[in-house]
Amino acid sequence: MFVVIEGIEGSGKTTLLAGLAEKLSRTGREVVVTREPGGTPLGDSIRAVFVSRMLAIEPLAEALLVNASRAQHVDAVIRPALKAGRIVICDRFVDSTLAYQGYGRGLDLEELRRICDIATRGLEPDLVLLIDMPYEVSQSRLQQRDEALDRIEQENGGFHERVRQGFLALAKSPRHCVLDGRLPPERLLEEALSAVHERLSTPLR
User: How many CA atoms lie within 13 A of 135 on its CB side?
Assistant: First the structure.
């Protein structure tokens, strides 16, 4: 099973991912936790470039960078794990490209979908957990962290609001589950686990 966690910056993806992985591992299932951009040595190198505050990156270049990472990630990590019967939980996938570079940056969505399809070779998640929350709440969380904002995190509120609305527009398919990121972490995890178990009993693929 392939589960993706999506959401704007500061929405709590990392916390939810860790909680899901722990709970599912306790059931005896093998779980692979990964992220985009990243997940491989090549992907981690691309990620360092992608988030660097020292660089100005053109929107199409952003999309191509993340999909170069994705192509390696799918081939080297995700597909082999799925073939071995493991559960893969990934922090971000194709929806992030469509939301950030499409809705956020203004690139053509169909063009982006074609680029992503090439990188994934048609692989789609069984479940996408979208953690939704107002931009103001996510920004408040980011400001409480003891680390500098990266290149994407420091974008203005208008950009992040477009990204948020993009995620919501994308979350219309049966494979999506929208979660309220303002819920306490324990309740959020509970709802996420419920969605995962529902898909495990009635898989989409």
Answer: 15
